[in-house]
Amino acid sequence: MPSLNLVPASTGDYRRLAEKRLPRNLFDYLDGGAYGETTLEANVEDFENIQMKQRVMHDVSKIDTHINMFGNDMAMPLGLAPIGLAGMMARRAEVQAVKAAEKAGIPYCLSTVSICSLEEVAKAATKPFWFQLYMMRDRAYVKGLLERAKSVGCQTLVFTVDLAVVGARYRDVRNGMIGGLSPFGKLRAGLEYPTHPKWAFDVGVKGKPHVFGNLADFVPSAKSIIDFKAWVDAQFDPSCTWKDIEWLRSIWDGNLIIKGILSVEDAKAAVAAGADGIVVSNHGGRQLDSVSSSINMTPRIRDAVGDKTIIIMDGGVRSGQDIVKALANGAQSVLIGRPWIWALAARGQAGLDALLRTFKSEMNVSMALTGAPKIADITSKILDTD
Ligand SMILES: Cc1cc2nc3c(=O)[nH]c(=O)nc-3n(C[C@H](O)[C@H](O)[C@H](O)COP(=O)(O)O)c2cc1C
């Protein structure tokens, strides 16, 4: 429906604004998925195809969206997923994100390959945030990173396991982010910066330094983001197996969440390896294309691992309604990736604050109108499966 479009109301509105604000190559890096992007689309569409059951005449005068995870209260079952290079989309994005997450009472997870370092984010934070780790070939680097994470107060480690090799994102190839550009291509790509002056000033100038904050000491030879990315891509360790979790456990005594589980077999293996929780995820459709959507796998994984293991899911969550649908399908909580960056890129922290308020109010309404005022009431019974 046509409207004045003066105030962003939904995740889609922030996406549209981010598309205008960001240079095309950065927007595509954020927005895109692997290969034909079928899994990326399925992540969203499979949520859209779930129907809730409208229920009336229940006392829904008090709605409670709080949950407790690892002994910490969360205002709603939602966290901000780790996003590499976030600080290229909004000024010191990781710092803005941790502040917005704290304000909303939810966890923020800092990526290994963030622009802001663990220490910079910790300076802005007043509570422990989560840290995400990729297993690198250089184990001394991994150990050093975990020591840093611990020393700034991180208690929860999210270990991402679905990037043994990197899936090709064709938008990045087309934009020359991968594989490079001809001299004409470089000229054409360079024009993106003057034609996006708000981003160029806010992030390009005021958002410096543009380095991988957590890696600067490990890769002193890197002169640009491209150098850092090349180092990281060459460092992902494809030989990593469940045995490495033992080693990880020996150097990390905090909570351990394994992210990137998309099969019953791997979910069981993660639990057997000692994970406190898992994230059912296909990396936002950015790795193997044509795999199942995350929401499609969530109930099967819940059935397989039972109630003792914390199950978080991500991929395609675009609203508070989706959070309720995820919980009804067996998740305890969800993460959002692209939506939080779209909001920050579009409107800074105020945008992300507003988006998180929207998610909360959408959850409230969904819980009220499905007759499920408490989190424990959100079961498969609130779904219309007939
Ligand atoms: C631009 C971008 C960068 C990402 N970087 C990381 C990362 O550094 N570490 C990680 O574990 N996952 C990373 N992910 C995956 C997200 O954590 C999350 O699984 C995914 O975005 C969820 O899907 P959604 O974007 O549909 O919410 C990234 C995703 C995107 C879109």
Give a description of the structure.
The chain is an alpha/beta fold and 386 residues long. It has a single domain (11-170, 231-377), classed as TIM Barrel (Alpha-Beta Barrel), CATH 3.20.20.70. It contains 15 helices and ten strands. The longest helix is centred in the C-terminal third of the chain and has 32 residues, at 338-369. It is globular and about 65 Å long. The mean pLDDT is 95. Bound molecules: flavin mononucleotide (FMN). Flavin mononucleotide (FMN) binds at residues 29-30, 43, 81-84, 111, 113, 132, 160, 259, 281, 283-284, 286, 314-317, 336-338.
Highlighted features:
386 residues; TIM Barrel; eight-stranded parallel sheet; two-stranded antiparallel ribbon; binds flavin mononucleotide
Topology:
Blueprint: H1 11-21, H2 24-31, H3 38-48, E1 67-69, E2 72-74, E3 78-80, H4 93-104, E4 109-110, H5 118-124, E5 130-134, H6 139-151, E6 156-160, H7 170-174, H8 183-190, H9 197-205, H10 225-235, H11 243-251, E7 255-261, H12 264-272, E8 277-280, H13 294-305, E9 310-314, H14 320-328, E10 333-336, H15 338-369
Parallel strand pairs: 3-10, 4-5, 5-6, 6-7, 7-8, 8-9, 9-10
Antiparallel strand pairs: 1-2
The protein binds flavin mononucleotide.
The site of flavin mononucleotide has 23 residues, from helix 2.
